[in-house]
Amino acid sequence: MEVLALALVIFTFSITIFGFRRWSDRDTKLPPGSFGWPVVGETIQFLFGKPEKFVGDRMKKYSPDIFKTKILGEKTAVICGPNGHKFLFSNEQKYFAAFRPHPMQYIFRSYQTKAPAAKPPEVPRDETKVLRQPGFLKPEALIRFLGKMDSMTQLQLQTHWEGKDVVKAYPLAKTITLALACRFFMGTDNPDRIARLVQHFDDITVGMHSIMLNIPGTIFHRANKAAAAIRTELMSVIKEKKDAMESGVKMQDILSHMIVITDSSGKFMPEAEIADKVMGLLVAGYSTVATTITFLMKYVGLNPDVYEMIRAEQMEIASSKKAGELLEWEDMQKMRYSWNVICETMRLVPPLQGTFRQVLTEFTYAGYTVPKGWKVYWTVSTTNMDPKYFRDPQKFDPSRYENGEAHAPYTYVPFGGGPRTCPGKEYARLAILAFIHNLVKYYKWEVMDPLEKVNGDMMPTPEKGLPIRLHRI
């Protein structure tokens, strides 16, 4: 009898709690949308379609301000439009903190043996801190590196394009940007070592946002194999760097800084952690810059009038230089039209579609509640192609950044905003400008397939590598 009574009490209590939870869920006005299929959610639609289409379709169906979904294993709110950008940028560390999707955590945190399964901290560590504190990406540091950017770009163009009629733009863009990133972040410019790494970095870039299925033949498996190969190479570089430093050679690169810094207890960073962090920095400094250079060449090649205006600007700078004199900081400030062309390229083809945040505490936006523990996906694609903010948005038109047509606040944010504005923004600007300066001095080109397909994932990629016909000037 007592057992029956106890069972009845437990049953009643469970029903009450279940009903309370159902009632609480009903009281919480979650954003409209769908979590999709069990387990996988809407990940397949997100990854294997175009991310901007995924977002745009759901903005039309559910809300232009916010909608919910489930991607890469996470319940996610997608906050849209310029008001969404402003809300996100203004509330970093209050409502949001950086979050890396689990595939990315797995790839870049091998030194944390249980990283993917571990419970995330209440306030995740800002992994860009190593860049922001020592000032490696501040103008005064980049000024010292600018001449090297210029000379390395010249050498790469001579090595890979000199004497050729038809080339592929994308492979060269990747080689140049990886060479620059290796020199800047690691202080190495060994061309053989860099050539070995290009394909590995491509595999990692795709695998950062993928389904975590680690079996042969999958994107995630290839990314893990690539990461292991790069770690092996980086461990060799770290050993070489330590030996050189012990022999008294002075180093001023980010890798050397990581080797010598200590935490509050005086401990040095473990080599495995250094390797993973440097790999993450190289990916960040490689893929987005290479993508922008590639599509810059496409749009400039398709618009001869734009090419002529860029060349006039760059040749005026070149004519002011003595033979063998490299670019200087003052030269970069004169490249205003060239930068407008780069901005228009990034508007039409954002080099990075978006990033994720972790929700630190429940908040309300546009009348909807987003619970603590959810993720927020921020994307540039909710404003870039909207005719409300950009006249004739499908048209490639660098003049829209002058002639008094300034875009409204928070409508054009290719580098993010607020406290988490991309720390590499100035590095990317200088690298792309140095490339276009050297390119138009010596070459004119034609895009051979203007309708070449662009593969739709988080990193836009021309399917054939953007073949172009070169004309040496």
From TrEMBL:
Keywords, in A-Z order: Heme, Iron, Membrane, Metal-binding, Monooxygenase, Oxidoreductase, Transmembrane, Transmembrane helix
Molecular-function GO terms, alphabetical: heme binding; iron ion binding; oxidoreductase activity, acting on paired donors, with incorporation or reduction of molecular oxygen, reduced flavin or flavoprotein as one donor, and incorporation of one atom of oxygen
Segments forming a coiled coil: none
PROSITE patterns cross-referenced by the UniProt entry: CYTOCHROME_P450 (PS00086)
Pfam name, any one: p450
GO biological process, alphabetically ordered: sterol metabolic process
Cofactor: heme
InterPro entries, alphabetized: Cyt_P450, Cyt_P450_CS, Cyt_P450_E_grp-I, Cyt_P450_sf
GO cellular component: membrane
Gene3D superfamilies membership: Cytochrome P450
Subcellular location per the Swiss-Prot or TrEMBL entry: Membrane
Record's bilayer topology term: Single-pass membrane protein
Positions contributing to heme binding: C422
Main location per the UniProt record: membrane
Matches recorded under PANTHER family: BETA-AMYRIN 28-OXIDASE-LIKE, CYTOCHROME P450 26
Family: Belongs to the cytochrome P450 family.
Protein name as annotated: Cytochrome P450
UniProt lineage: Eukaryota, Viridiplantae, Streptophyta, Embryophyta, Tracheophyta
